Here is the input.
Amino acid sequence: MESTRQAKIARLLQKELSEIFRQQTAATHGTIVSVSQVRVSPDLSIAKVYLSIFPSDKSAEIMKNIKAQEKTIRYNLAQKVRFQLRKTPELSFYLDDSLDYIDNIDHLLGIKDGQ
Here is the structure.
């Protein structure tokens, strides 16, 4: 069960990380990285960040670059939330492939309807 404080911090981190990724991907036309969900540990020291990447065929390459830049992203986040949070949580990034899963189900159901 997530506490109210965890939920508020998760929303704050999601908003600020979304802005960071929007600024970084503005230079790469045709690529969108969105933060679909953030989960914060009860002690507020670790944040699991779930990213949705479009187009999905570039997701492996982009995730590799994001994981290589984890410390820079955390520093940029800390600069944005320094007045709200005393300590910025450690970030771990995960690929959220739920949109691909939904698309696959829609495709499969479309094939069944066509038969």
